[in-house]
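quick one before i forget lol
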Amino acid sequence: MTDATPLDLTAQPERSRGSKIWNRFVGIVRLSPTAAVGLVIIMFFALLALFAPWIMPHDPVAAYTDRVLQAPSAEHWFGTDGNGMDVFSRVIYGAKFGFGIAIPAVLLSLVIGVPVGLIAGYRGGLLDEVLMRFFDGLRVFPSIILALAVVAATGQSLLNVILVLGFLDSPVFARVVRAEVLALRSSNFVESAVAAGNPTWRILFVHLLPNAIQGAMAQTAVRAAWAVRISATLAFLGVGIQAPTPEWGAMIRQGAEFMVSGQWWVALYPGLALIFLVFGLNLFGDGLQDLMDPRRRTAK
């Protein structure tokens, strides 16, 4: 009779932890292929933004005066712009501004809109009417026109663009959360919390918020796409982030004047990057709504 070989009890847990992310991704693919495709596109641009210093072959703001408007080549994959800057490096670095504007703007919208939606939906009455009519007034004006006016008045800086976009988009989250709270405020668990003597803040943020936040979270990716698109539009119109900062909207604006003379690459590549990032965010947002709303997934 031989001695039994001792089992390695540590190997299996290591494998299970390593495969956890992959298993979750496979689960997303099965439940919502749309969300999976959008997530892949978002992660691609996120990796570009994260590893930009190691990926860029040139300094994105270094001007090579002897290489102005050179066509795509082995030295400059996407060509050079009117200042002799490497378009490929600028497109990669521009991903930082895409996420650097979208993420803070959406977070600010959540911070403003979610509490307002909770309070308005739970209290109702005159307070609900005043808050919602004010937010409805923000949505009456075209977003781009209002953003243009505010940014032009407050100053052309990254912080001002984020603050304006976050404030203008907060009514979307307020509306979504308010609708959920209106449906939940007469539920048994809310009435039990009131009967138990819980203060209003606890009812709002402990009992109602976890049950009313799903709709708002499902909107985050779509609203991030909106923030990326509007910020690029502001830069294109000359109100947002200005050149030579490698922001996609500003790059498209600079390249538009060269399109008629045949230097198409200056505006094409940042335009494609903008389109794909917005497309990926919208795909992920649509799939996220399917994942968080079983009724939509069943209907599809």
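fyi The CA atoms of residues 48 and 54 lie 9 Å apart.
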